[in-house]
Amino acid sequence: MVVWMFWLIAAGVLFVIEMFTLTFYLLWLTAGALVAGLVSFVYPDAVLLQVVAGSLVALVLTMFSKPLSARFRNSRGFRDSGTDIVGRQGRVVEPIEPGRYGQVKVGGDTWSATSLQYLGKDEVVRVVRRGTTIIEVERWGEMY
């Protein structure tokens, strides 16, 4: 098998994983692998050039996409649906122990969740904070 096929397979695997995670980090690695595959197609014996070209593309895309996404998020009229979850009510689907993750259903979505207290199944909770994909909850009715 020729080297460019390995790069193409790596790009495909990274892209499929990206579709499941939706983080965009693997998308830039996918683009880097595609560029490395293109370099490999043109210069099949220049492995170092392939790695450097792919790495540079992934690095440049990562560096320039961060300010663009920050500008987009701060633009007028942008509304992140994930921030609306804070303060909403949910129900524990999988028990949560302090220091371990559980599952909470908020609206129609199920989230991985943490809490400082033990929360049993079917307890009603309030979302206190949201990370990227994990929310922090507390028992409903407990205010500080």
From TrEMBL:
Record field: transmembrane: 7-29, 41-64
InterPro entries the record matches: Membrane_assoc_protease, NA-bd_OB-fold, NfeD-like_C
GO cellular component: plasma membrane
Main localization category: membrane
NfeD-like C-terminal domain span: 84-139
Keyword Lipoprotein: no
Recorded topology in the membrane: Multi-pass membrane protein
Keyword Hydrolase attached: no
Keywords, ordered alphabetically: Membrane, Transmembrane, Transmembrane helix
Record localization: Membrane
Protein name: NfeD-like C-terminal domain-containing protein
Species of origin: Paenibacillus donghaensis
